[in-house]
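Example complex used in Figure S2.
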Amino acid sequence: KAGVTQTPRYLIKTRGQQVTLSCSPISGHRSVSWYQQTPGQGLQFLFEYFSETQRNKGNFPGRFSGRQFSNSRSEMNVSTLELGDSALYLCASSFPGNYGYTFGSGTRLTVV
Amino acid sequence: GESVGLHLPTLSVQEGDNSIINCAYSNSASDYFIWYKQESGKGPQFIIDIRSNMDKRQGQRVTVLLNKTVKHLSLQIAATQPGDSAVYFCAVPNTGGFKTIFGAGTRLFVKA
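Predicted assembly (224 residues):
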């Protein structure tokens, strides 16, 4: 079966711009979580969605937002990009009641 | 706040030897623990999990040990192979599974 698909794989943006990242979970997985991965901070939780509802949010500024659609696909948006937003953004999906994630390969965002 | 930590950022082992990767967690109420493996250019991949009512769980060449008294878990890899070279994360989902906290990761190097 298809895995978690994240698009695009790589992205270069300029400071001040905004960006939208997309995630398609595994069929049947209704929970989608987003993580930011950097060498210094490791994997940091951004938010989790289930049935189009945000159930939990990490300690990130309001510039980071997300949403989930009725088909469970999810997007995250970062506005007013800063250099420190450069990171690998990972999306993970899970089956209801299952705590283990299946991750996508991530979107590598570079802010210049 | 809740935290998950690893004892060593890097571990180097000889091919064929056994590897042991350690992790400590802070929340004594945690009842589920997961190990992930992340290879270069990929998202983390689920390896094995264990519930708090167990002390040990075995998979294919991997064993996870849980010591709730000292809030410590370890991942043992038997007969380590070059393909085991990766970063290994221990992860602790919160109650309800809406968020998972990841340790900083241990990078395993396998010497031929």
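The interface with chain B takes residues 4, 31, 33, 35, 42-43, 45, 48, 50, 55-56, 58, 90, 92, 94, 97-106 of chain A (CB under 8 Å). The mean pLDDT of chain A is 95.
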